[in-house]
Amino acid sequence: MQNNQLAPKIFACRQSRVLAEKIAESYGLPLGNVIISNFSDGEFQPALVESVRGRRVFIIGSTFPNSDNLMELLLMLDAAKRASARHITAVIPYFGWARQDRKDRPRVAIGAKLVANLIQAAGATRIMTMDLHADQIQGFFEKPVDHLYASTVFLPYINKLGLDNITVASPDMGGSKRAYAYSRYLESDVVICYKERIKANEIDSMELIGNVKGRNVILVDDMIDTGGTLAKAADVMMEKGAISVRAICTHPILSGGAYDKIENSKLTELIVTDTIPLKRESSKIKVVSCAPLFADVMHKVQDNRSISGQFLM
């Protein structure tokens, strides 16, 4: 039984309040009280209403755009640091700006590295996140990183579907490692989509590497943004003879016309987590909560226990 005097404090940024409430409930503690003061020009200032001196603090906040979400997390971390918290864990279910993980053309920023530096400078002594866009982003931090995998919550859901003749698919070459990890667990074949883009978020053409005829296909990706890739992939696979096409994507960014694309596509179902709150409901979108996973890992971090048993991948 934890000594209540040493119990951690859990705080939420506004953009992740709903998920944070679920995590706190699973953990068995109430959310800490935060007051946000807003200025007329759009500036805001969070204040932790209760003492955190000498305690471990978990601050939960995804950093999806707009940039206010990142700024709020940074201010919360700084507030905890200045209030003499003993350990400050930044719980970032969705680590935004992660697609800027390398210098792929001249004179561009490496946004993921910049954000990692900001989070550490603000006071985080540990980072907890899920399904980074690129594994190497862990190396951008000088602090410990707990990189969780959504497969822990997705695979039990897939097993409950009771599907036969499963084939796992990657929507692009970059996601092949993730697809093979799922296929090992499901003991299935793998197919890969090869796509060419005219520009960001716009696909010129797509080809399929592998056979999907007579198969129940499960597309695996870390995020879904405009939905164009998955909608196109589902259409191609159904034309190639697939029985059904489902997609599992950890982070439902769903920008622009993504909802319409998903609803009008040949996808049977899109399965996502709640790292980012949905903008609207859809009959094709199923949300599987990652809150129990985060809560369990937070317990283990607090008790200095190993978390390696959490990983199915």
TrEMBL record:
One of its GO terms (molecular function) is ribose phosphate diphosphokinase activity. Residues 9-123 form the Ribose-phosphate pyrophosphokinase N-terminal domain. It holds the Pfam family Pribosyltran_N. Its EC number is 2.7.6.1. It catalyses: D-ribose 5-phosphate + ATP = 5-phospho-alpha-D-ribose 1-diphosphate + AMP + H(+). Keywords: ATP-binding, Kinase, Magnesium, Metal-binding, Nucleotide biosynthesis, Nucleotide-binding, Transferase. InterPro entries: PRib_PP_synth_CS, Pribosyltran_N, PRTase-like, PRTase_dom, Rib-P_diPkinase. SUPFAM superfamilies: PRTase-like. NCBIfam families: PRK01259.1 (NF002320), ribP_PPkin (TIGR01251). This is ribose-phosphate diphosphokinase.
